[in-house]
Amino acid sequence: MNDKPIMLIEDNPDDRDLTIRALKKNNVLNPVTVASNGAEALTMLLGDDHRDHGNPVLILLDLKLPKVDGLEVLRRIRADQRTRVVPVLVLTSSKEEEDVRTAYDLGANGYVRKPVRCSEFAEAVQTVGLFWLLLNQPPPDLQP
Amino acid sequence: MTRIDVAPAQGRGREGTVITLDSLPRLRHVMSRPVVTLLLAVVVPVAATLAMVPLRSSWSSANVVLVLAVVEVLAAVSGNVVASGVAIISAAVSYDMFFTRPYGRPNILSADDILVVCLLVLVGLVTVIRVRFMRSSLEARTRQLAGREAELIAANKNLQAFAYSVAHDLRTPLRGISGFAEALADDYGDRLDETGRQYTARVQAGCARMATLIDDLLHLSQVTRATMHLQDVDLSAEVTAICDRLRARDLRRQVKVTVQDGVRVTADKTLIRSALDNLLENAWKFTARREGAAIEFATAPAVDAPICCYVRDNGAGFDPAYAGKLFQPFQRLHDADEFPGSGIGLASVRRIIERHGGRTWAEGTVGGGATIYFTLNTEGTP
After folding, report:
1. What is the pLDDT of residue B42?
2. For residue A84, what are the domain limits?
3. Residue B281: CATH number of its domain
4. B95 and B163, same domain (yes or no)
5. FRET partner for B284 with CA separation of 20 to 30 A, picked from A6, B44, B275, B300?
6. Cβ-defined contact of A118 to B182 (cutoff 8 Å)
7. With an 8 Å Cβ cutoff, is B271 touching chain A?
């Protein structure tokens, strides 16, 4: 199960590199596919490419994204039969109650505020992310 | 001990206005009923004229004054143009009926009578026009004020949203600086000498301080914007819970906590809890270097509000000369290395208390501990 990719949807290159580094530091060896905006993420998840790659084992989703924002991406992921059950961990600097509630309403599996310190971020990924990566049996890919 | 009252007494000014405006609208309300107004417009001039009959004078000046007064009052209080007209006509008709005809004088068309009637009509018209003008200018002013208020509210909201988004957006680059400084220390620390490693540590410490500042700023902005949900809150229980948590966080500290039982208020639970959190954390922090540290939560006699509470500690205290600065954001009365903090906590407390219609003030001396008082007056707050 270590060969299945984690999908990181994040527009900020610093956050992207730091997230990937934090995953590596925590011995998460899965390859990471990156989408730098919501539209790209949706193409990769729900477009023609889907048949080639299959579902990622976990989606790390930023809420503040250019083009299609994170909540909309989440809504579409949950609306599609193929990606309905893929675990989604919302990673964002926003702590607006409204966003948290909406994210959970839309079916996010976890919500982690990006802490400023990388070690704290690593902890967040470990506590929420590793649960889905290691303990949880990922749902089988659903056929469309 | 010096008592410093730093909160603006908003409540009192509002009450003052209420008293002066209270009785007039009620009178205006009764008078604005057309039946009452018209009845007065007919009855008062006729009665006044009849009262003048025994005098048998052709025209009593008292009658003129009385009728004019009725017209003025009717127009001013009811703003009813018809009523003013009716008052003028009934005055003229009753004058004709009771004075002119019974005594065989020429009818209403006699020169002095026409003069009197013209005078009445003129004064009536001027009064009506004046009232109308006053009314419209008052309405225009009210509209203008309402517009200003809406603008202010919008500007305030914009400012809050701005503060929030600035604080929010500041976190993003800070995360980059801090994250890569940490990566540098972790991954390349062995290639740096001692000074180099100290520099990266300082970068990280600076980032951590700024992160705290930004978080507190966000909190302040959220406290101001959050919607209020008033409910019954047991402050004593909240205080006890917070103190238990503080104790669990630092088991080495010996702090005597005294909590008055059964202090219940109507408040927004999340907000008031956050205010108590700030106050008790402060008390906890400033008694850190004190043998026999003691913190007390209790109520005090309230003067201008239903309830007044205080949080008292016997910690480092403060110089009363600077007490006014205590509740201002980013104002600190202690060195950062002595007692760390962003200086936003008490500003948040004040905002929260003000949103509950209350006031905050502080008493204290250097080395003699501090007492922070707050009142709550949620009646009438939305």
Report:
1. 78
2. 6-134
3. 3.30.565.10
4. yes
5. B300
6. yes
7. no
